[in-house]
Amino acid sequence: MFESMGPLTAGPWIYAVVAASVLLDVFLPLLPSGVLVIAAATAAAAGTGAAGQMNTVPDIVALIAIAATASVLGDLAAFRLARRGGDRLDRALARSRRLRDSQESLGRALARGGGPLVVLARFAPAGRSLMSLGAGATTDRRTRDFLPWSAAAGVAWACYSVGLGYFGGHWLGANWLATGVSVLALFAAGAGAAYLIRRPAPAR
Fold first, then answer.
1. Which of 55, 78, 93, 152 satisfies CB 3.0 to 4.6 Å to 132 for a cystine?
2. Where are the domains of the chain?
3. Do the Cβ atoms of 158 and 128 come closer than 8 Å?
């Protein structure tokens, strides 16, 4: 598999592609940044087993650092955008019932979950976008309060995604099956995170 993908994963430009994808998917959640990170990590697993291949495949430490950094920068960009354009954001959300309902659910979850919820939402589908924009639109949320949790979320997500691709490639072989299983595991984590976020608070 990865012999045919060599030109796509070899060279330093793959890091720029991963960074851009992770950075922008806070605004465009449909971007397959997680799939791209997993594919790059699986390519790294393929290269570690072949002599002379280490310089032609991504480095997993660099992948984790770049994916985590891009995640935090994207979160902060969305946070600041929401902070400066609160009224316009509210009008945009008002046009979509689904987004409005999601924002209300997020507000309730933030009220009971606080900072750790930022980490959990990083794994949920579109959770990163809603969390960063929702936290920025909340007047009592400051950047210095949001940043540490965003950093923890970015590191946790990057380690999990890269780990899935890398160890999946070692255990199942560097093929499409390994990538598919790893992506399914990423989606399963997202589904679990979404369930925990939407779960109603226990009655007191």
1. 78
2. 10-196
3. no
